[in-house]
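Module 6 notes. Inverse folding takes a fixed backbone as the condition and produces residue identities as the prediction. Think of it as a translation problem where the source language is geometry and the target language is the twenty amino acids. Below is one complete input and output pair. Work through it position by position during the lab.
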C-alpha cells in the first residue's frame, strides 16, 4: 500500500472516484482524507478513505467511510462506514428486512449478483471504533453469502437505521480470510 502522490495517479484515481460517485454517495459530513493504491486478490485497487470533516474521531480506529475499487473495471469491491450512529443497543432490522435491503442494494450496484449468491446466515455483527477516546461497539445485521461460481464470499451489514454499514465481495477464504482487509483499521494498524 502506498499513498497516491504523482499527478498521473491523482488524475487516475479522480476519474475512478468520479465514476463511483455517479451511483454511490458518501455520507454527509465526511470528506476525502487519503487515497491509497494497493492490491486485493492480485488485482490493482484504489482505497479511498473519508473521515469526519469536523475532525472528530479521525485516524485509524476512528469514524470513517472507506471503499475499495478495482482500478481496471471501477467495480466497487467493498465499503465500510464506521460511525457512532450505529452504536450497539439500538433496534436492528429483522432478518427479512436485512434480506430485502441486501437484495435491493445488490441488484442496484451489480444486477444479477443477488441471485447468484447463496445466503449462509443472517445475524448481528459487532465492530469496535474509538469515539472521544473510548472504544465503542457498533452493531448491525450481517447478511453473509457464498458465491459458488467464483468460490468467494460476500456480505452486507445493515445498521439500526437500515443504512448499509459494510459491503464486501470477492473475499477468498482458506482456513480463514486470505483477501486483504483494506477496509479494516485493525488490519491497517498491523501493517505498520
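Target side of the pair, the amino acids:
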Amino acid at each position: 500500500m502506498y499513498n497516491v502522490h504523482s499527478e498521473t495517479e491523482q488524475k487516475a484515481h479522480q476519474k475512478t472516484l468520479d465514476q463511483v460517485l455517479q451511483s454511490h454517495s458518501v455520507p454527509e459530513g465526511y470528506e476525502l482524507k487519503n487515497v491509497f493504491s494497493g492490491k486485493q486478490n492480485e488485482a490493482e485497487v484504489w482505497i479511498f478513505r473519508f473521515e469526519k470533516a469536523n475532525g472528530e474521531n479521525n485516524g485509524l480506529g476512528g469514524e470513517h467511510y472507506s471503499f475499495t475499487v478495482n482500478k481496471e473495471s471501477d467495480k466497487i469491491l467493498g465499503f465500510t462506514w464506521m460511525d457512532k450512529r450505529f452504536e450497539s443497543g439500538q433496534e436492528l432490522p429483522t432478518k427479512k428486512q436485512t434480506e430485502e435491503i441486501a437484495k435491493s442494494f445488490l441488484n442496484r450496484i451489480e444486477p444479477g449478483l443477488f441471485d447468484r449468491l447463496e445466503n449462509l446466515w443472517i445475524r448481528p455483527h459487532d465492530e469496535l471504533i474509538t469515539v472521544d477516546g473510548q472504544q465503542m461497539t457498533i452493531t448491525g445485521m450481517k447478511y453473509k453469502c457464498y458465491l459458488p461460481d467464483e468460490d468467494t464470499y460476500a456480505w452486507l451489514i445493515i445498521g439500526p437505521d437500515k443504512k448499509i454499514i459494510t459491503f464486501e465481495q470477492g473475499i477468498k477464504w482458506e482456513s480463514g480470510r486470505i483477501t486483504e482487509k483494506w477496509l479494516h483499521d485493525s488490519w491497517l494498524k498491523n501493517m505498520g
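Reference fact for the lab report: The chain has a mean pLDDT of 92.
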